[in-house]
Amino acid sequence: MDTDEKSKSVVVLAGGVGAARFLRGLAVVHPPKLTTVLVNTGDDTVLHGLTISPDIDTVIYTLAKAIDPQRGWGLTNESWRAMESLQRFTKVRPVGSTAAPDWFNLGDQDLATHFYRTARRNEGADATQISQELADAWSVDQQIVPMTNHEVSTVVELAENCAAGKAGEKISFQEYFVKHKHAVAVRSVSFNGVESAKPNGLSNLAEAKAIVIAPSNPIVSIGPIRALQGVDDALIKNRDRVVAISPIVGGQAIKGPADRMLRELGHESSALGVARIYSKVASTLIIDRVDVELKTQIESLGMRCVVTNTIMSDVEASAALATTTLESLKANQ
Ligand code: FO1
User: Fold this and answer.
1) Residue 75 near residue 61, CB atoms below 8 Å
2) Predicted local confidence at residue 65, as pLDDT
3) Which of 31, 247, 263, 287 is deepest in the core (most CB within 10 A)?
4) 194 pairs with which residues across the strands?
5) Within a 13 Å sphere around the CA of 186, how many CA atoms are in the beta-carbon half?
6) 176: number of CA atoms within 13 Å, CB side?
7) pLDDT for position 301
8) Which of 160, 162, 227 is nearest to 199 (CA)?
9) pLDDT in tens, 162-190
10) CA–CA dist 121, 125 (Å, integer)
11) What are the pLDDT digits (tens) for 84-106?
12) How far is the CA of 217 from the centre of ligand 1 (A)?
């Protein structure tokens, strides 16, 4: 992207499924080539020796129209022969060995992505380069940029009353989300390695015409991106051009554990709770119609508040939300 294109570009801070659905609609109303997606990589994990970057892959597969629509992750028309074949080894695995993990489902076609990413990493390519190659392979025109090329891992500390593990035990995000089906209470969330990691996309943030915080989990999807050195400062500097979409509707998360996690970490699970988290960095919050009664309280935090349908049931609904989101910033110009 040259300087002129950057000034017409939209940057989206993205997690997984909610962000991907928003991006599918944005692609209808804004040129994909002028869209940069800054993606959370705190969820990344290594299993079977393979580097897996779930949010990057969810965004790419969705934009390539290859995502499994029911699950919201992985590929459509997937087969699971490799996963089934792992069962042979789980019974011989010695105690203490983590070989042949079968709790994280990797489809046969999806495995090709992890093979490619891992091989390219072993050749010395960085995460930005590899993500671009994966996007190109899937003919995705948006710039898909991992939040950093360095390793940052989201760590979830289990709460006192947690049944799945010892109180205070720290586990990886995917263990929390997939292994324990996010059915365990959380005491804290931290991002290992974030202090020394260099963020990507700061120049895109500085030059974009609009910055959208997608309807993703504010703590574990947008949180890691914001925790990188300089990202919040860049957002604050450009606050007039930053709009966030609440992932909480009627007090509940559309998908995933965001509502419970917000409560467990002392936030309010509502669009107002989301507004409090974003008011420093975003001038505008998009909330759903069912939350209209929160508008005045959100405005009292110094944010503009736009009420619309935020449920992205199909591409048309996502595109309408994307249009409203971009239009909302015009009031600040
Ligand atoms: N989510 C699940 O709930 N169960 C899985 O077995 C699972 C496997 C998986 C494999 C590849 C991939 O790219 C994503 C996968 N996800 C799975 C989704 C993923 O763990 C979460 O949606 C994100 O990390 C949260 O944004």
Assistant:
1) yes
2) 98
3) 247
4) none
5) 29
6) 27
7) 98
8) 227
9) 777 788 999 999 999 999 999 999 999 99
10) 5
11) 999 999 999 999 999 999 999 99
12) 14
| Segment 154-162 mean pLDDT | 89
| Rounded CA separation 190/150 (Å) | 16
Task: Kindly give the distance from the C-alpha atom of residue 136 to the centroid of ligand 1, in angstroms, as a whole number.
Answer: 22
C-alpha to C-alpha distances, 204 to 7, 18, 137, 208, 302, nearest whole angstrom: 9, 22, 23, 6, 25
pTM higher than 0.90, yes or no? yes
Q: What secondary structure letter does DSSP report for 104? A: S
- Distance, in Å, from the CA atom of 45 to the CA atom of 30, rounded to the nearest integer, reads 32
Round to whole Å and give the CA distance between 186 and 267.
Answer: 13
- For 42, 169, 173, 256, the CA distances from 184, given in Å and listed in that order, are 19, 11, 12, 13
CB of 247 closer than 6 angstroms to any ligand 1 atom: no
CB-count burial class (<10 Å; 0-12, 13-18, 19+) for 97? exposed
Task: Give per-residue pLDDT as tens, 192-209.
Answer: 999 999 999 999 999 999
* Nearest residue (CA) to ligand 1, atom 26: 16
The tens digit of pLDDT for each residue in 252-265 reads 998 899 999 999 99
Instruction: Give yes or no for residue 16 CB within 6 A of ligand 1.
Output: yes
Nearest CA, atom 13, ligand 1: 54
> Alpha helix locations (H) across the chain?
3-6, 17-29, 54-63, 81-90, 108-122, 127-137, 173-174, 202-207, 222-227, 231-237, 258-264, 271-278, 295-299, 315-328
For residue 117, pLDDT beyond 80: yes
95-121 average pLDDT score: 97
Q: 325: CA distance to ligand 1 center in Å?
A: 27
Taking Cα atoms as reference points, which of 38, 259, 273, 44 lies closest to residue 142?
A: 38
* Residue whose structure tokens are 């709790």: 103
Q: Is 105 touching ligand 1 by the criterion CB < 6 Å?
A: yes
Beta strand pairing status for 186-192 and 153-158?
A: antiparallel
